[in-house]
Amino acid sequence: MHPPSPAATAMDFSQNSLFGYMEDLQELTIIERPVRRSLKTPEEIERLTVDEDLSDIERAVYLLSAGQDIQGTSVIANLPFLMRQNPAETLRRVLPKVREALHVAGVEMQLTAAVSFLTILQDESVSVHTYAHSFLQVILLHLEHRDAGVSNAWLETLLSVIDVLPKDTLRHEILNPLVSKAQLSQTVQSRLVSCKILGKLTNKFDALAIKREILPLVKSLCQDVEYEVRSCMCRQLENIAQGIGTELTKSVVLPELIELSRDEGSSVRLAAFETLVNLLDIFDTDDRSQTILPVVKSFCEKSFKADESILISLSFHLGKLCHGLYGIFTPDQHLRFLEFYKKLCTLGLQQENGHNENQIPPQILEQEKKYISVRKNCAYNFPAMIVFVDPKNFHMELYSTFFCLCHDPEVPVRYTIAICFYEVSKLLNSGVYLIHKELITLLQDESLEVLDALIDHLPEILELMSTGGESSVQENKLSSLPDLVPALTAAEQRAAASLKWRTHEKLLQKYACLPQVISSDQIYYRFLQRMFTIMMTNNVLPVQKAASRTLCIFLRYNRKQEQRHEVIQKLIEQLGQGKSYWNRLRFLDTCEFIIEIFSKSFFCKYFFLPAIELTHDPVANVRMKLCYLLPKVKSTLKIPADKHLLQQLEMCVRKLLCQEKDKDVLAIVKRTVLELDRMEMSMDAFQKKFYEKDLLDQEKEREELLLLEMEQLEKEKQQNDGRPMSEKTFEKKRRDSKTPTSLPKSIPISVPGSSSATPSTSKEIKKSKLIRSQSFNNQAFHAKYGNLDKCTTSKSSTAAYTPSVSGLSKTSMISLTGTVSPNVCLYQIAKKLSPSS
């Protein structure tokens, strides 16, 4: 026999598939038949039909009386609307029917009623007195429903009602019946409900009434025979302590907590421990040292022999516990608690992990999950433990633990320590250099969740790293961290290769801080070209926009004119004049960012004409987007200096009006023309109406010119390296520089109300440059990215603008980068290039 040919096999397969499909279709028809039989009969439809002429109240009464359960549930869900529409009739006619229906209602209707009653209370459709009279008894009646979910739903409604009821109503309707409900003869469910109600009632009565009427019930429930009741009452002692004051808490609540902390039930001991930790602030030093500390020590010593759930709670509260007991530990106790914390941080890591997960017993897997939760809680409490040991002792006491948490094999632990990384950096202050390597480790983490948690505060972290935690330090300290740039680039590439585009977008937004922490050349060769690639090739619009904005910020603070011109040329040629309409749309996005970030003159010089040329674009979407941008484009013009550009803009708009064939674009053009006509033009001289915006634009332009000045000074310094040069010769070079004459006439040296004069001598010119560059660099910048226009409207920003030419404000960097201390600050360059250097 010969094996069948591939073609025959394929034929058989296709035939079998065809027969298989036919069989599937037959099965579907069989399945559909019972569905058709299950449709409502005419009699059933008639029974479910309601007269359309009935009012809402009459329809509700009819459905609650003769309708099916689903119809009654619908009426109860609509009860808040009926109460808003006609409260009197709803209370008189509908609510009695609701009470009757709830006596035999199922779980779904009960849950719906609990939610509706709570909504009516929150809507304040009726007065508190009316609500208590009409609804309170219904709520109390169903508190002990046999279904736990229903009982909890009604209890939540009751606890919300207690907040608004008057004391007399609370005492007669709730507190007095509670005396019998809390007795041992009642069910466990009834006593559990009583515990929660008592915890809520303490905030409504004075201390004397609580002592006389509530505390006896509390003591009784704390001694209940059921551990569930004791645990529930123990967790309510925190609320009770806040209601009765410090003295009664010490004399009544504290002894109960101490006794419950020795309870035979582990859940009761755990509840007592957590309540003690939460009440630490109430007790004085003597109570903490003599009463609470021994209990805590005993609890910690026995925790490793107990259930892992106790370790989870203990690890979560350990930071708060150490903070509350700080100052009463002896050196030996301090060391023991620290060692206990270190032990928890590595819990479960000592076991061998080489086994196959499929072969691990389920109980071992569950235990490992609890150990992971313990280490995660330890990571959460790490900043509190730094305070506990004092940041000065971090390297000796906690660095090895921090290293273990950053290299933990489980993602939740590393994710939590990444969230805390900024807090740790702030606490270490000048010792932040100790965790440089851990920053690199988390940036290179294989999990994007860890990276996403870290980059939330990446600008602030890099700021602390670059300044060593001292805002006054000018020298950048990231030069001692050579792995930072490779780690940042690798992090971006991992985010780009994943499907989590939001993480990628966030990372690109945070990279806008890089001009303040690494050199301009590093940004140009390692990041700026990458931004171009993302803009050209990425398929996610928010990611492209984030890359575009970050690229504009890189361009804004690039310190080499040749590189800036190259980037501008690539933006115009590859985006503005690109073959893909998508790239041309991104060019318009970039123009919008340029208008926001740069000065008006910069946009007009390089991007005005390439932008308005897109009025002739063959793609309607591009022309439409340009129309939306035209008002911002016009806002960059100053009259009369930019009169010729205004004429070209008007000519392009006129052509659009006359030649546009797309009706959608034409409609937008007409709206844009009206908006352009209403706009008022900025003048070369300051106007009171545009004073703040003009002043902000002046500051931007000065900073752009200052970059050119610093570049020129650097070139002169490089040309004279290796040759002796006298101070007089170097000063003459600086005096002959074009810098002082580079300020255009359109930027006034002073504004009305300012008496500052132009420096006339060479020493004054040099001093002016140095002061301006120092002012540009030394300002403290915000850690958030905002809109420049918003900065101009705030009073604080207005106050920061200095009209004198000798001072540059911090306004532009406030909204652009959000970090401080540039790696190569302009003040340092000017200082190094000065004759004194």
From TrEMBL:
Residues 714-738 have a biased composition (Basic and acidic residues). PANTHER family: PROTEIN PHOSPHATASE 4 REGULATORY SUBUNIT 4 PPP4R4, SERINE_THREONINE-PROTEIN PHOSPHATASE 4 REGULATORY SUBUNIT 4. Keywords: Coiled coil, Cytoplasm, Phosphoprotein, Repeat. GO terms for molecular function: protein phosphatase regulator activity. Gene3D superfamilies: Leucine-rich Repeat Variant. One of its GO terms (cellular component) is protein serine/threonine phosphatase complex. It is found in: Cytoplasm. The keyword Phosphoprotein applies. Residues 752-762 have a biased composition (Polar residues). This is Serine/threonine-protein phosphatase 4 regulatory subunit 4. The lineage of its organism: Eukaryota, Metazoa, Chordata, Craniata, Vertebrata. InterPro entries: ARM-like, ARM-type_fold, HEAT_type_2, PPP4R4. HEAT repeats lie at residues 214-251, 253-291. Serine/threonine-protein phosphatase 4 (PP4) occurs in different assemblies of the catalytic and one or more regulatory subunits. Component of the PP4 complex PPP4C-PPP4R4. Residues 714-767 are annotated as: Disordered. Putative regulatory subunit of serine/threonine-protein phosphatase 4.
